[in-house]
Amino acid sequence: ATLPEDPATTIEWVIDELGLGEAALDGYLHKALGSVAGWAAYARYLGWKSELDGEEDGTVTELLAIRLAWDYALFTLQAEQKRAAWQAALQTMNEAGRAPAVNQDRVIDAILQGAFEAAYRRRLVAKLNANSDAPEAAGRMAVQAAFCIDVRSEVYRRALESVAPRAQTIGFAGFFGFPIEYVSIGQSSGPAQCPVLLNPKFVIKEGIAGADEDESTEVLGLRLLRRRAAKAWKSFKSSAVSSFVYVETAGLAFAGKLVGDATGLTRPVSHPSADGLDDEVLKRIVPVVEEGALGVRKTGIPQADRVALAEGALRGMSLTKDFARLVLLTGHGSTMVNNAHAAGYDCGACGGHPGDANARIAAEVLNDPGVRSALRFRGISIPEDTWFVGCLHDTTTDEITIFDRDSIPDSHAGDVEQAESWLAEASRIARRERATTLNVGTGDVDESIARRTRDWSQVRPEWGLARNAAFIAARRDHTRSVDLEGRVFLHDYDWTTDEGWKVLELIMTAPMVVASWINLQYYGSAVNREAFGSGNKTLHNVVGTLGVLEGNGGDLRVGLPSQAVHDGRQLFHEPVRLNVFIEAPTRQIDAILEKHDNVRELVDNGWIHLLAIGEQGEIQLRDASEGHWTRIG
Fold first, then answer.
1. Which end of the chain has fewer CB atoms < 10 Å from its terminal CB, N or C?
2. Please, what is the Cα angle at 346 between 493 and 123, to 5 degrees?
3. Per-residue H/E/C for 487-517
4. Is 288 exposed, middle or buried (0-12, 13-18, 19+ CB in 10 A)?
5. pLDDT of residue 519
6. How far is CA 287 from its chain centroid?
7. Whose CA is closest to 526, among 487, 556, 566?
8. CA-to-CA distance for 403 and 599, rounded, in angstroms?
9. Cα dihedral value 224, 229, 232, 233, nearest 10
10. Is 336 left (phi over 0), alpha (psi -120 to 50) or beta?
11. Stretch 522-538: mean pLDDT, rounded?
12. How far is CA 573 from CA 155, 340, 466, 520, 606, in A?
């Protein structure tokens, strides 16, 4: 009752009452928020979202005020008994603020960690140097396939190239340069399918191919009706009174469903994208690129923006010439059930959602004759017989789905048939490589992996991005045929075609930064699973749409569950800070670091190890503390 109403004033009041000096403030306030780290992280997330919209959010300040008010209440109640102890704590905090103590054990740990990372880097450099004389792919390829830079794509790209020597794979951020908000049928808004560094610029709504207005209205009404009925039924089953009656009267009727779900023969719940829709309708769902409206909101992509997006995507992929007849734009997603961390397995470049919508939209825009005509005036000539196709790579099953088949010209039927044959063989190879780490047994590997997608009790449907350790932005010739063990983010980049170094700047400020976030999320969850991880997945309880608790109370848990980094016997994810290899002149890399403080701080503070690949394939490491480059390998 004695505290001020304003949060900032409350914080000042408590600081004054507790007698905290300036030297102690940073450590004390940081520890106060650290004691409720999960809720503090969520509050910071709300602030992050507001900053992207050019607004301010004071949730972190309000939470800090609540936390300090609690300390003040305890201090007031215990002032006489604990005053001596508090004064000693104040002195310790002030001394630590002025001259932080050096923990010799931590120093030794840091040296050993650096040596551990250097050992991996030495092995990787040796692999790249051994491949430096590999011949460049020349001429027109039979098929080109663009995948997300995700480390899981490295395994599949290598498999595809092994069965199809005339196939060229390309690495690019999985949203394909199309920052969209994707609105499904029956919704008024949708998720942002772009990196969290960006705000969606276009609203894309779903439509039904070949449907007239009456059919579209009927499908929409039926989906809404089914969703309302399902919601009401769920409320009935879980309410305090009816739940017991329901089990007594209808329990046995669900015996077959329980057996099917428990054995992985059936899926416990419908996939969110299929909720309330018939199978025949699902096959006809398409993203609508044409301009339209959704209430008062404009949807679709105007023609002028299509040209700019198409150019940005092609230059970002370093794909401006030698187009194949068939180009597969392959987003990725993961299939699983009953997993509170499912978004962590989907595409990070698409904001934690599957990337099929972005791939299909990019393909449609790149097939637009008007867009191609405009691109010719910008120095990019796409042959008339080149056709782009949107696809989805399911990273749990390693299956590739090809979309919008009806729009593929008959002239490309043979190309598609040949590509499907290669993809099927590549999928089998990739599944077997991953199966060795998933303990799927020695029987039917394909069926065992497929069953994991339907198993509600499966704590590890796949390994996600575990063991990620490096990011390479270079021509594919440097890494083609090299077994990178599914540990490397691969971004295609040809610096010789990068006018004004715009693509390099984009790579270093967006994909490289996001890759470092992913790397540090796994790093933290592995080196200190209690503080930076979310604990045991089998004990998680979902808290609305905010996060998870471990058990029935406590703080929100941050980071990844133990099962995402540990196989039950030992760490599966090796905690290695990201090694970034960029094929570009070091002076240009330095110029971009000087321009962007947030990127330079990642390098200078040792959160990533930055290396450059020179014109002759030589590799140099940038010293984090000194800022100069040293040749290695």
1. N
2. 50
3. CEEEEECCHHHCHHHHHHHHHHHCHHHHHHH
4. buried
5. 97
6. 22
7. 566
8. 37
9. -140
10. beta
11. 93
12. 17, 20, 5, 12, 20
Mention every residue, 6+ apart, whose C-beta is less than 8 A from residue 296. Answer: none
Condensed to tens digits (0 to 9), the pLDDT of residues 387-438 reads 999 999 999 999 999 999 999 999 999 999 999 999 999 999 999 999 999 9
Nearest alpha carbon to residue 364 among 183, 493, 204, 144: 204
How far is 526 from 122, CA to CA, in rounded Å?
A: 22
Angle (nearest 5°) at CA 404 between 403 and 405? 95
Quick one: residue 351, left, alpha or beta (phi over 0 = left, psi -120 to 50 = alpha)? left
Provide DSSP, 300-347: S--HHHHHHHHHHHHHHTT-SS---SEEEEEEEE---SS-TTGGGGSB
pLDDT band of residue 526 (cuts 50, 70, 90) is very high
Structure tokens at 462: 């796949």
**pLDDT level of residue 270 (50, 70, 90 thresholds):** low
Enumerate residues 6+ apart whose C-beta is below 8 A from 572.
Answer: 437, 463, 466, 467, 565, 566
The CA distances from residue 309 to 49, 176, 179, 313, 500, in Å, are 24, 9, 9, 6, 18
User: Among candidates 376, 372, 363, which has minimal Cα distance to 412?
Assistant: 363
Neighbours of 320 (CB within 10 A): 17
Mean of all residue pLDDT scores within the chain: 90
- Kindly list the strands in the beta sheet with 285-288, ordered across the sheet, starting from the edge strand earlier in the chain: 192-193, 180-183, 202-208, 285-288
Closest by Cα among 412, 319, 321, 402 to 360: 402
How much is the average pLDDT of 366-378? 97
Q: Which amino acid is at 458?
A: Q
Q: What is the dihedral of CA 210, 346, 422, 162, to 10 degrees?
A: 160
pLDDT tier at 221, thresholds 50, 70, 90 = confident
The two beta strands, 143-148 and 167-172, are parallel
DSSP 177-236: T--EEEE-TT-S---EES-TTS---EEEEEEETT--HHHHHHHHHHHHHHHHHHHHHHHH
Q: What is the pLDDT of residues 541-571, one digit of tens each?
A: 999 889 999 998 889 999 999 999 999 999 9
For 382, half-sphere exposure in the C-beta direction (CA atoms, 13 angstrom radius) is 26
Per the structure block, which two tokens stand in for 285? 């769902």
The whole-angstrom separation of Cα 173 and Cα 313 is 9
> Taking the alpha carbons of 371, 373, 378, 381 in that order, is the dihedral positive or negative?
positive
Q: Give residue 14's pLDDT.
A: 92
Task: Provide φ and ψ at 144, rounded to 5°.
Answer: -120, 135
User: Would the CA dihedral through 149, 625, 594, 618 be positive or negative?
Assistant: negative
How many Cα atoms within 13 Å fall on the side-chain side of residue 403? 27
When pLDDT is cut at 50, 70 and 90, the band that residue 133 belongs to is low
In which band, very low, low, confident or very high, does the pLDDT at 621 lie, cut at 50, 70 and 90?
A: very high
Q: What is the DSSP letter of 137?
A: P
The phi and psi torsions of 35 (rounded to 5 degrees) equal: -75, -15
- What letter would DSSP give residue 582? E
More confident residue, 554 or 332: 332
